[in-house]
User: Which sequence fits this backbone?
């Protein structure tokens, strides 16, 4: 009986460890899909340029994600026909959370180059792909 309890505890603990990583992968893949859905609905002409983190070092990932979330607030729909899709996808991207690893980053959002909204979204997708690989 004692062996059975120990086996059950080991099985439970190992299954919990294995489910954490796939959830993160699914979450990031959903974010990539959302970014791709948003790209064609974003206004790209006569708009404010956005601070766009590119290739942030590991200790600056939290700052980069924060910059992208701030930039999402400034995006505009391309036209009124795509407004509902635009609103739904931006809501998903605004609610994305990324845990802070606790390391300090020297750069701020303002230190990154400003780019057009579609380039901004491509860089955001690139960052999410990097998080998927980690």
Assistant:
């Amino acid at each position: 009986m004692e062996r059975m309890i120990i086996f059950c505890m080991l099985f439970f603990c190992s299954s919990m460890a294995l489910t954490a990583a796939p959830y993160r992968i699914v979450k990031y893949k959903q974010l990539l899909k959302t970014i791709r859905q948003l790209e064609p609905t974003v206004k790209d002409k006569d708009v404010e340029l956005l601070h766009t983190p590119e290739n942030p070092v590991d200790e600056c990932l939290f700052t980069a994600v924060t910059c992208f979330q701030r930039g999402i607030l400034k995006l505009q729909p391309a036209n009124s026909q795509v407004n509902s899709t635009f609103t739904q996808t931006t809501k998903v991207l605004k609610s994305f959370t990324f845990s802070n690893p606790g390391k300090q980053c020297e750069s701020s959002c303002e230190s990154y180059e400003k780019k057009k909204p579609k380039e901004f979204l491509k860089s955001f997708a690139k960052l999410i792909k990097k998080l998927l690989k980690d």
Remarks:
- Residues 23-133 form a domain with the Growth Hormone; Chain: A; fold (CATH 1.20.1250.70).
- Residues 49 and 115 are 5 Å apart (CA to CA).
- The longest helix spans residues 2-38.
